[in-house]
Amino acid sequence: MTQSPTSPHTGDGEALRERALAALLTARERTTLLTDSVDDHELTAQHSPLMSPLVWDLAHIGNQEELWLLRGVAGREAMRPEIDGLYDAFEHPRATRPSLPLLAPAEARSYASEVRGRALDVLDSTPLDGGTALVRSGFAFGMIAQHEQQHDETMLITHQLRSGPVALTAPEPPRAVDAPALASEVLVHGGSFTMGTSTEPWALDNERPAHRRDVPGFCIDTAPVTCGAYRAFIEDGGYEERRWWAPAGWAMVREHELGAPLFWHRDAGQWLRRRFGVTEPVKDDEPVLHVSWYEADAYARWAGRRLPTEAEWEKAARHDPASGRSRRYPWGDEDPTPERANLGQRHLRPAPAGAYPAGRAPCGAGQLIGDVWEWTASDFLPYPGFAPFPYREYSEVFFGPEHKVLRGGSFAVDTVACRGTFRNWDLPVRRQIFAGFRTARDL
Questions:
Q1: Where are the beta strands (DSSP E) in 53-210?
Q2: Which domains does the chain have, with CATH numbers?
Q3: What are phi and psi for residue 109, nearest 5 degrees?
Q4: pLDDT of 287-338, one tens digit each?
Q5: Does residue 336 have a cis bond before it (omega within 30 degrees)?
Q6: How far is residue 274's CA from residue 265's CA, in Å, rounded to a whole number?
Q7: CA 239 to CA 159: how far, in whole Å?
Q8: In this structure, are residues 378 and 405 in contact, taking their beta carbons and an 8 Å threshold?
Q9: Rounded distance, CA 106 to CA 235, Å?
């Protein structure tokens, strides 16, 4: 996959326009790959009650683009007002979407394509260096590119859940060049730092505003927890010891008879896993994937550690002690590159722990961006001074203890939807997402 640029700057309308165009085109290239790689039956099938049919995501992408860019920015009349309800994510849960009168694959493709053509005309004619908050700095176009990429990640999860022949392939990620020499953990000194952002033009509402946060000193893993380390937890009876688990997590383990990450199974004394249609041995040096928050929390307790808070994670990823400022990314303010992070579906798996030395933070921690989403100990809550924009349903309705925060992005996340301030959230039972974790401890 190509990588979309992600660091728009205010005040330069043409540069913003080029950046928005590149982000939209990159997103559509990926959407096309994910939907053209399977036949119409696979597009309309529901591969898991946790996920929508792929064809629903395709038309939903077009519908949201029409709502925000054609109707919202350009003030045009609705193209297909009768389908708005079908593709409202809050009106119909995923499990019931196959029963809706959805657009057929050819019609969904045609609709999304027609919307895109008109949206590019709107982008070409809309001033981006002023105007309303929705269009200033190209925000609406950046928001739609992020929305499409987020659904592309969701569709990639569906590809992982589906059975049948292999539909997607990608080259292997780079090796870890100095993993044996890396310390297992790094120290992050105590003190305040700037969390969140008030200047990133395409940042979403839950990333705002920037504010000072005081964080006592702590140690955090240099890399995400590996499959090999997690296997030690399994083999030590981790799934059989109630003392490691939060009550709701233990209930989940008992109800579903869990004994390993999702997609793992044991055969002839060897741990295997299914990955995008291929069954392969579990790689001990790779970050563990497809574990719920409860599993991450239980492992951390077993290891005598804990999950980092969201503030600890962001300080480790962004704070530069030399300058006292918070960077956009662990390595600095420059956009992600293939040498710095595993993003954009360029690979279909995490890189081994210790890869991407060019992407490490000043504290020494690596792979904080890309590879696996990382569960944190924190509930998803608003920052001080939060204001919903441009609609409450993006973030505000999810605030509360029901959802846990994930940080950092995964190999399935595009650069346009991944920053040092970017916040993801999900229910603590979720296992199908591309999530792993790292642990921390108090000093």
A1: 185-188, 191-195
A2: 13-161 (1.20.120.450), 170-443 (3.90.1580.10)
A3: -60, -45
A4: 999 999 999 999 999 999 999 999 999 999 999 999 999 999 999 999 999 9
A5: no
A6: 9
A7: 28
A8: yes
A9: 49
